[in-house]
Design brief:
This protein is mainly alpha-helical and about 475 residues long. It has 19 helices and twelve strands. Helix 2 (about 65-75) links the parallel strand 2 (about 50-55) and strand 3 (about 85). It binds one RNA strand of 75 nucleotides through helix 4, strand 7, helix 6, strand 12 and helix 11.
Length: about 475
RNA sequence: GGCCCCGUCGUCUAGCGGUUAGGAUCCAUGGUUUUCAUCCAUGUUACAGGAGUUCAAUUCUCCUCGGGGUCACCA
């Protein structure tokens, strides 16, 4: 059987995309978005979405960071295809291509010392010229200076036009003399550099659609130089505009709340975060809510915006509230266990969650709301007491307590509501006269779901207890 | 500074020569509610500026301004 070169994907219909983070920290919200776009595009086309860990910078990389990225992917349900590729394990591959380029005369050893390089740059800067390597060893065939370990530089075109065909921004033309020089592909210690290995890996892994941040746009011509030197096919590029912070700068780790897993802790659901991110820089008419199935069906990188967007989480809150509202209660019970609330055996959890899930923006909030009801108040909000105990609510509360004590068959909120109505009618008062003090007695503050719901959830005995406590504490 | 990209409500966006410039979010107001929230209704707010091209420009071209990205033996 003839061996098919891995990098030859011409004629192949399979879309292969990738996400290639360098493991220097957690998964970032911006990285997640490009990962999501890549994932969606691969899934839509029945292709592959592969993960490559760019861990060549031994000083800054950590296994921990790799695990953090994987964990975030797992939480979000983004699944990569096949084995994960680690660049750190591919040195022999890169060495082979460096040698090939050297043998073919497409790359050469440069014996310029770091000091000389710095000096050159400073001179160029002083003359207001573009700083670039001057090619002094490009055609060198003399005796190399002693004591200098050479770097390997690639012979880049000295002139001409390089066109990046970008699916988001259109064709972008660069002049070789403006942006290229013979850049380093291997350091003095022999290790390969980023623009070199990215091109090789993408080609070897069969990646034919590269979706990445547009901060890579200016790297692309360099990578194209590598593709061409090695005879690889150039993939389609989609350079996604940056996400900016409120100051209009590229979102960075310093901006806070950019760690994807922090969103879990804050109580966001994966589908809300994904939905939020897919709409940042991409849209499909007026549609705001997208299930994963819809995203896969409708996403196309051609529809990605050209302009950067500012990161603001207003809409994320709205989406999260929407998804919480539409989550079945049994699922919520499970989710809440991550936020310190165990409702598994609570007999009124359906009533409770039906009432609360309409009100929560995050799962964390939902957990707090549950606790506020399930756990008796330890203190009473001063303002609420002042307002609710303004008249003399104690006779009313006592009247209600008496009815409660005698009542049987109390199950639903409506059962408790009926008792409240009886008191209101008999004492000829407004609903607020009993509602407000009762609310303060039960929760220690104003706000919250309907009182009858609260009582149904905590039950008759607990209700009586809280009423009694409130009377003692506030009379 | 060189090179490259971008510019519609505060924010996310629709628009692809002719629209009262649409939706969403946020905010405000009203309704519903014993409270708060939800929900419903209503409202305020945008084509960066200037020249062209055209019968007609938010839409096409150029310039200006503004913003961003990138210029390593980091990735």
């Amino acid at each position: 059987m003839p061996k098919i070169p891995q990098h030859n994907f011409k004629g192949s219909l399979m879309v292969v995309t990738r996400f290639a983070p360098s493991p220097t920290g957690y998964l970032h919200i911006g990285g997640l978005r490009t990962a999501l776009f890549s994932y969606l595009w691969a899934r839509k086309n029945g292709g592959k979405f592969v993960l490559r860990i760019e861990d060549t910078d031994k000083a800054r990389n950590s296994e921990e960071a790799t695990q953090a990225i994987l964990k975030a992917f797992e939480w979000l349900g983004l699944e990569a295809d096949g084995e994960i590729t680690y660049q750190s394990k591919r040195d022999d591959i890169y060495a082979k291509y460096i040698k090939q380029l050297l043998d073919e005369g497409k790359a050469y050893k440069c014996y310029m010392s770091k000091e000389e390089l710095t000096e050159l740059r400073e001179t160029q800067m002083a003359n207001k010229e573009r700083t670039k390597y001057d090619g002094r060893y490009r055609d060198f065939d003399g005796t190399p200076p002693e004591g200098v370990e050479p770097v390997i530089r690639i012979k880049a075109p000295l002139s001409g036009e390089i066109i990046v065909k970008d699916g988001v921004k259109g064709d972008i033309s660069f002049q070789a003399e403006d942006i290229l020089d013979d850049f380093v592909i291997a350091r003095a210690d022999g290790s390969p550099t980023y623009n070199f290995v990215v091109a090789i890996d993408d080609a070897l892994m069969g990646i034919n659609e590269v979706i990445r941040g547009d901060d890579h746009l200016s790297n692309t011509p360099k990578q194209i130089v590598v593709y061409e030197a090695l005879g690889f096919d150039i993939p389609a590029f989609y350079h996604v505009p940056m996400i900016h912070n409120s100051k209009g700068k590229k979102l960075s780790k310093r901006d806070g709340a950019t760690d994807v897993m922090a969103y879990k802790e804050m109580g966001y659901k994966p589908e809300a975060l994904l939905n939020f991110l897919v709409r940042l820089g991409w849209s499909h008419g007026d549609q705001e809510i997208f299930s994963m199935e819809e995203m896969i069906e409708l996403f196309n990188p051609k529809d990605i915006n050209k302009s950067a967007s500012i990161y603001s989480t207003d809409k994320l809150d709205w989406l999260n509230a929407h998804y919480i509202k539409n989550t079945p209660n049994n699922e919520l019970v499970e989710l809440l266990s991550d936020y310190g609330v165990v409702l598994t055996s609570h007999d009124k959890k359906e009533i409770l969650l039906d009432a609360l899930k309409e009100r929560a923006k995050t799962l964390k909030e939902l957990a707090e709301m549950v606790n506020e009801i399930v756990i008796a108040p330890e203190s009473y909000d001063e303002k609420a007491v002042k307002k609710a105990f303004k008249g003399d609510p104690i006779p009313i509360l006592n009247a209600f307590g008496a009815k409660l004590t005698n009542a049987t068959e109390l199950h639903l909120p409506s059962d408790y509501h009926a008792l409240m109505e009886e008191v209101v009618n008999e004492m000829e008062i407004g609903f607020g006269k009993i509602g407000m003090p009762l609310r303060v007695a039960l929760l220690g503050k104003m706000g919250g779901p309907n009182i009858d719901v609260i009582m149904a959830v905590i039950g008759k005995e607990e209700t009586l207890l809280r009423i009694a406590n409130a009377i003692t504490a506030n009379s």
